[in-house]
Queue: 2 jobs
Job 1
Amino acid sequence: MLSLDLPGGRLDDALKALALRSRIQILYAPGQVEGRRASALQGDMTIAEALHELLEGEGLRAERVAPDTFVLREIRRPRVETNASRPRPSPPRQHPVDIDRIEVTGSRIPLADIGAITPTPMTLISREDIEASGYQTLFELLRFQVGMIGHHPVAVAADGGPDFQQPFSIAATTSLNALGPRATLFLVDGRRVANYGLTSSELGGLTDLDAIPLSMVERVEVVRGGASAIYGADAMAGVVNIILRKRQKGSELLARLGRSTRGDADEWRLSASHGLDTRRGGAGILAVDWLDREELPGDARDWHTWDHSRHGLPDWRFPLGYRDLGHRLVQLQCGNAPPGIAPDCMFDPARYTSLQPASQRLSLHGHLIEPLWEGAALELDLRYSKAKQALANPPFRARVNLPASHPDGLEDGFLDYAFFEIGPVRNRSDNRSLDLGTSVNGTAGDWTWDVSFSHHQNKVDSRIHGLISSEAIEHAVDEGRYRFDGTPNDPALLEAVSPVFRLGGEATLQQFSVDFEGPWFNLPGGAARLATGVELTRNTLLHDPDQRLRDDDLALGTQKRPLDSHRRGSAVYAELGLPLHGKLLADVALRFDRQQDYGSRFSPRLGLKWAPGESLTFRGTAATGYRAPSLFELRRPNVIEEHVFVRQIDVLRPCAIEIALDEERSYCLVLLGAFDNPDLRAETSRSHTLGMVWAPSTDFSLSFDVFRIRRYNEIVAGSAFDDLDAFPDSLRRDEQGRLVAIESYFRNLGRTDVRGWEAEMRWRLDAGNVGDFSLAITAHHLLKVRRQAWGDAPVHDHASYGAPSSNLLASLQWSRRDWVTTLNLRARGPYRIGSPDTGCPSYNGSRCSTPGRGVLDLDLAWNGLPNWRLGLNIRDLADRAPVNYDTDQDGYDIAHDDPRGRFVLLSARYRF
């Protein structure tokens, strides 16, 4: 028996509301309920009685086909035959719609309708959107979403700055609302996954999005704002939930072939999937995907250069050769440089930096749901990905001090040199991901329960060619055996000077959870629903650098230390959906987390949704969040150890080694270094959203939401050079109290305050014989990005600096007969050069803002052959070269620009 209080209205809405309240499935064709109305339901009644009242007088009846499933049937009426009667054409056959209960990101309480309005703003990227986009990878799909920043594999590999020249990581990820990857939580089917196995020097642990092929993705849900009360740590800026395909009728083959109109950047993809049914009534899917992507070298595009003179900006290419102690160039010298560089020895690192890494990736996916007993089922998940990737960096470059006895030596000077004879610095990595999940779930009365366990693993083996051994090059230079004037060096010597450096990493995550959800008590607006559960997690991280990296034998690099660490965590959560009134819904969530070594924390959240009318809804949320330092962050900052002279002031005295120039000027010789800080604390956040949704019809909707996220206790790196009061442990002294080193370390000091808004409009039009039209526009704007590095540091607004504060996506689709044509626009606004504290560099002159950019993509699909879908996608129709006035960006914005330019992709899909 159900206690119901459902308002009257559209029959479609009433059926979905009843399915939600009673946890049943109602299958029907869209045309069966179109234009039909339902009267209000009030009182205690069975499901059968409720369906009877909803359908009375509408020519429909509900037929039970399973304990929790009903199918709507037309009521056949006697037909009166007359001589004038003529046979009517049969209506087109329509397939039933499966009204599954949908787990929507940002809530543990299921919904009956994937399009339902939630208290928290959410962006839904459907399977149809994915196919019309023409994107090949999940990273490409997400990096161009509004409010997101893409962290390209080339940028991740160079993280920490080009001076480190140690591209160990090749991973791709994104982040929300200018808060970085640490504040964005990625889920797959509502579960966390293991991070990429290698540590990013500045970005922390990363979720490698390229490990999940788009062909296996059903939809993507993006929730903006704090969600730690639902999912725990890391969900401060938002959550990205990647929903994989679970069911499929029959089999599907998909082939895609792409190439830029310049004849490079080739890629091809083959995918196959098969839906299966078991004898006991179970169902599942098996899928395989292969992607082969060609490397796009750095010299494939003319705009990819350090020479910015075409924009009236400096030419940052630098000459290789001998310099005196005053750093003046006295003689060109570039040794074994290729012919194009040898005449003037001008070195342009951008020409050697890959624009796109080479990638070969094999992915497998399987899902099975099998009934166990009435009301219970077993679900199994398996995902496996194996990838080989490669990218190139410029030849290793360094400032070499040659002794006077060396054949190529210069008295009182040094040599700026690039090791062309060794070749470019190249990373070749093998990456394997394994995800296993199992759960037993079912119903007990009106409640559902779920017991699940999952294991996630990512293992990376990275090998770097072209780097230099400090010890080997020092010995070879001191002995005069290594030549820099172009005289060929012995191959055995080159191999000794530049051995292969290797770093292995493995990250694992095990999760166990028990969840319950169902109606608890009745309120004026309906039954209050409770979702509650417990979670147990265990993270491990293993880093295995080779002996040279452990011994700090990497020239101009940082020491890599072995790591074998783990952390356990536990959590209890509860979420309560409260229909306070027929038009007012409250969503209250509270989570208690305990992390090994970081104590415990409560995370509350409150969401409200008020619908004063059928077409207008107001919503808002208030939430807190937190993020404990991950295993990836328990390390020291990236600092190349070297001795430098610093001006002596009172706080530095006394110095172990002091050099006095005169009575007023003296300097300390100190070692620059870094150390680990084991006393880091969790970062915390507060977030608020407020918005409205106006949907006067099923064909039009408009939403507008404002948000604010404040993050506290941010983990930042610094030293006494930045602020001695903020980093008091930076000065290292010997036993006599004399200064010997100034070291950097991490502390919880920073604060960030982000404010912005997001708007979305969707419109559909049935134009009869002309076809169907749909238009979707989403805009995102950051109003403020206020950052403070530490307590006494100034507060600066970074909005529009280094990245656009405005983004827009628009999609216009026209469907007619067998054709579907989609025109996509992705646009970003301008952004300022420099930083808010230093302003625009003087050498930029009047070019202090990189202009905005809009890119048009076209997708054509034809379904004229039975079971076939043929497609043509053209990315960047105008094929305009990127424009970027930031001279640190190599001619383009790697976070937002696609270096391939116009790219043509052909696809063919066959279902059987």
Job 2
Amino acid sequence: MIRDTLKFDVGQTPPPHTTLCIAFMHVLLVFDAIIFIPNVLGKTTDIAPQTLAFITFAIIIVAAVFTFLQSRTRLGLGAGFVLFTGSYSAFLLCSLDAVKMGGMPLLATMSLLTAPVVFLYTFFIRFFRHIITPAVGGVVILLIATSMVPIGLGLWAGETASVTRLGIGAVTVLILTLMMLFAPPALRLWGPLLAMGGGYGAAALTGELHFEHAVHAAWFGLPQLSAWPGLELDLHSAHLPLFLAFGMGMVASMIESTGNIMLVQQISTRDFRRVSYDRVQGGLYCDGLSKITAALLGTAVPSLYCDNLPLIEMTGVASRRVGAVGAAILLLLAFMPKVSGVILDMPGPVIGGFLIVIAALLFHAGFGLVAMTRLNNQHGLILGLSLVVGLVAGGRSFFPGVAPSTLSPLLQNSVAMGGFTAFLLSTLAYLAPRRGLTGVFRADPAEVRSLHDLLASGRHRLHLPQDRFNVLSLCCEEVFLHMLGQGGRGGEDSVSLRVSRIEEGWSVEMICGHMMDDINNFALPESLLQASPDELGQLGLVLFSQYARDVKHMEISGYSYISFLI
């Protein structure tokens, strides 16, 4: 997939002034969400002011550090893309319950105890490759988009909707939409900033621009370090429902973060071919570590955001340097309460109108992820049901009052419930019994005969006619030899084969324990007479490509997975 709209992809470096402005735009969009849970906790519970100041400072520091780490890939930590971190709204109600039950120390302990769920999933992610797919990630993104629409409209209208607020939001939406649709690439880069400027100007002219937070905040400040809430060590059975609620929140966060990392890969790479699960793993490890760090600091549970990712498509700038500079801006804001107060004072109609356009772009991105997977009736039904369940949960009108109040933050969360449904149904579909055969072979060309013998022995079980059997044998042989030629280590390595009869035909997956070039990355030599030995070696893949359908090549944790349909 070639993305011509990208001016700077993830590995390129835009000019410093461009990087700074776009990083600031990202921060403008996510800063309010970063400190969302501490703000709500401060307004709805009896947390001491100095404790509230500390946990707010701590979540901004966590956001800054792990946003920077997400832009790196060293030591397998970080996805290497622009991914911002901040407090996660799915934990809101269970966080409120924790604070009411045992204060901030209990919230921190629950976060610490359930965070290992993310690490376990990440370590064993290769076993979930058929379950958490780009299509599932796309459904999660679509649910995020649907949940953002009422939020954006609520901010736009406010408590008392008026023509003035309608006009301010309309100015923001109109400028941003026109810039994206008709502006030349050089000007489109500044579309989001111009839209915000137009919205601020309209708010100032109509008297809707107020600086309530900024006026009372200090220019520079540090919280009292003695206000660290600590951890709750006296746990008992009454805390079990709370523990389960936090555990479900971790799973929801894990599924959503997987979708976000898949999405940012798709929109940040000019020549995007496939999702890199190694990048997904690096991003999830970083996300899990952010949850551990936040728990130790006694602040809210963080997660990855996708709300700001459409800015990449709006501006055409996906450089990871934007993430690093955005992290530096967050770090400064942690020590400058007055500047952060100005961001919090952004007029509701401006940010609401902006979120409406972002939701529209997230719909486009979500459909793009879903389209990466060839959907049969089973997969289509799973994704459709997941979307419906998410929409019903978000509507909060299905048997209200029946579910336990301790689980309401998740049962009424569209992203969490839709993601859980997709995860559960995909798992059941994968584990369902079906006709098939499996085999393991040494990484040795002499094993080709054993491969053919296995296929022949299972021919009747798979209901393979002779012509399809010949095609299957040919394709499996070519993939087997390709895997051997790309790094097989003789008896030290092996190749696994799994063939299943499915609705569309016969599904094949072959696995080996080393990395290799993409099986789809080959080209015919211009002249067979002048072709090099390496080029001649590609002729088998050319033949394979003529018979195999829906060829996918994944690399996860040092393993290569090649699947195709016959």
